Amino acid sequence: MxxxxxxxxxxxxxxxxxxxxxxxxxxxxxxxxSALADPEALESTPIDLIFGLVFAFHFLSIFLVFxxxxxxxxHLFHSDRVPQxxxxxxxxxxxxxxxxxxxxxxxxxxxxxxxxxxxxx
Length: 121
What we know:
This protein has one domain (3-110). With 121 residues, it is an all-alpha fold. Helix 4 (87-96) packs antiparallel against helix 5. It is elongated, with a radius of gyration of 20 Å. It contains 5 helices and no strands. The relative contact order is 0.14. It has helices at 3-36, 39-42, 47-78, 87-96, 98-110.
């Protein structure tokens, strides 16, 4: 995989993790605002719009995770960097722990590395 594609894949891999954090912060903010705000002020706020946007981005994130999972599984079984005896384990880990396992897999097997190893000191 080229360096540019590997970096783009790494950035795309981080999107669901960032989305998860942002969604939790926004939802907690909506809950706190709804609990603390004056009932008359709630009628004039766009909470429904914010919730709808979060819901839409959540579905986009789900489709992104499915696409990333396909890319990672294809890379797993077509790459010579992953040892043969670890491929089945990585397939299960990627499938079950996808959002958390994909950044680890990317860091270990996909991230761009320098062609020359550093000189020993």
